[in-house]
Each structure stands twice: as C-alpha cells, then as structure tokens.
Predict the structure.
Amino acid sequence: MCSAPGCVAAVPGAAAADLPLETYTHMFVTCPTVVPAVAWLCRLGGRILGAVPPPDPLVIILGDPAAWRPQRGGTRAEARAADALWMHVRLRLLQAIWRARCVRAATPDGAAVPAVGAAAVVAMAAAAVEQDMRRDWHRVQHDVRSEAGVSAAMFAGHSDPMLTREAFEQRWCVRGVLASVVGGVGRERLVVSVPRALLSQAPAGI
Ligand SMILES: [Zn+2]
C-alpha cells in the first residue's frame, strides 16, 4: 500500500487495505505526491524534445517509443542527442522518486518524515542532473588522469577520458534548455539552467 502523504491524507482514518496499491505505475507516475514532479519532467521534456511527452507510465517509466514518439524536424543526430538527454533527466527523476519513497518507508512510525514530496524530488533530480553535467564539464577542462595522484602509466590502454567542448554541447546543451557554453577558446564558461521550481514555465511556443 502507498504510504505517501498525498494518498494517506486523501483517505483520513482509512485502514491500510483501503490505500492505493503501491504499483510501479502508482509509485512513479500517478501517486498524488509525485504528480507535480512528473509534470515538471514532462514540461522539461517538452523543451528538450520539442514536443511535450504525455504522463503515460509507458513513456515515463519505460521510455517506450511505441507508446509515444515526438514529431519533430532537425537532423538525426539532433534527435538522438535530444532523446539521450530526455532519458538522462527521466531516469534521474525516477531515481529521486525511488529514493524519496525509500526514505519515507524507512522512517519509523511516529517519527517526523523528512521532506520527500514533489518539490524535494524535483530538487534531488535537478541536483543530480547538474552534478552529472558538471562532472562532464570537468572532463572538458581537465585531464582527470593528471589528478588521480598515480602514474600516468596506470592508464595505458584506457580510452581518453577528456571530452571536447563540441561533444559536451551535443550532450548537454540540446536546444539550450539545461546549459550553454559561452566564451571563446580558452575562456569557455558553463552556464547551467536546470529548472528546479515545480511551477517553472516553458518558454512560449514549446
Ligand atoms: Zn500514493
């Protein structure tokens, strides 16, 4: 049974058996506690993909292209990059929902439940996405092999861990939604714009 505040509060005094079953669909998509977070994801997905994904469990949980696929222009490479970024953000949100659910489940009866509602879930997902992005940006600017404190010979045979600015922009700067890189060669600066507010609006026209 779902123990999320949105479900428990909806049926005051209800026996556990009367609460909604905690199926994957309920937990990740339809539970009232996560609905605003899924709306945040869909709105952000719309800006990344150029078409707003529906809050369909097949789309949100599985990313099933048979259930929904955006109609859009652009090159195949642009479409692939947008799809990959959408999947990254989507999985980070699912992970945040799961973590919030586990925190709630691990809280002893009677103890104060930490903030694990939709706003906290979105903040967690956005922070994770930004951290992933900044790690990649670090790879653009630094060779992590020189920071490991061991001989470079230890890395012989491994693929180059550095990332080009172009590869970074292709991965993270899709449609300028989550980030952009400004400045010329040697003066590059990362500008991060991952939305964290539940009520943030997409630009008009998308
Ligand atoms: Zn629920």
